[in-house]
Write a structure and sequence with these properties.
By secondary structure, this protein is an alpha/beta fold. It contains seven helices and nine strands; from the N terminus they run βαββαααβααβαββββ.
Length: about 220
């Protein structure tokens, strides 16, 4: 194990966050302005009337429906990634958004996907929750052969590695609310412990019935 100091640099980043934020610059602008990005859950997410109750202590019900909600969580350019409409329809939005933001992070780092192909770039994804799969279990006839691979958490990291043809370690990290920092630690350990990878993609995604807060970072030793 290396004992000297190892420098870590974040060279590319991308995000999808509440308040219409789709870039780190927009995030910084919102933070500086002190904006409140919590909003009412839109009607197309779920039927709030089924769960509404004016009494706060009512079991199984809620009296408020505000959350951090991103725009167009279901939007995805499947053909850009060579994914068929049949597969994309089944795909957890966490996988869709991670693909898009990973591509953006690579571009912001000044790299190309072809330039990373077959490299030792590692992928560590902090991810938890399978809400999208859970709500589809009530309709078995709506599934197809893609259902398992596009909804299993362990495949999320592998999806990025496959799409970018990366040859480094590929791991999904689920430690609940600490998944992001745990994934980041694993990515840093690539350099700290003298593992073979010098570049890592670190991501965090959590969707609650299509409410999502993913962040992508690329870091290089």
């Amino acid at each position: 194990m290396a004992t000297g100091r190892m420098d870590i640099a974040i060279v590319g980043a991308a995000c999808r966050l509440p308040g219409g934020i789709s870039s780190p610059d927009q995030l910084w602008s919102k933070l500086r302005a002190g904006e409140n990005l919590i909003s009412e859950i839109p009607a197309d997410r779920w039927n709030k009337d089924l769960f509404r109750h004016d009494r706060p202590g009512e079991s199984g019900r809620s009296y408020t429906f505000r959350a951090g909600v991103i725009d167009n969580a279901a939007a995805f350019d499947a053909s850009f990634f060579g994914i068929s409409p049949r597969e994309a329809e089944q795909m957890d939005p966490q996988q869709r958004i991670l693909l898009e933001t990973a591509w953006e992070a690579v571009e912001r780092a000044g790299w190309t996907a072809n330039g990373l192909a077959r490299s030792d770039c590692a992928v560590y994804v902090g991810v938890s929750g399978t809400d999208y799969a859970n709500i589809r279990l009530g309709d078995p006839a709506g599934g197809n052969a893609h259902f398992m691979t596009v909804n299993t958490l362990s495949v999320v990291a592998n999806r990025l590695s496959y799409a970018f043809d990366l040859a480094g370690p590929s791991m999904a990290v689920d430690t609940a609310c600490s998944s992001a920092v745990a994934a980041l630690y694993e990515a840093c350990a690539v350099s700290w412990q003298d593992r073979p990878s010098s570049t890592s993609t670190t991501t965090r995604s959590r969707i609650s019935k299509n409410n999502d807060l993913p962040m992508i970072h690329l870091q290089r030793r």
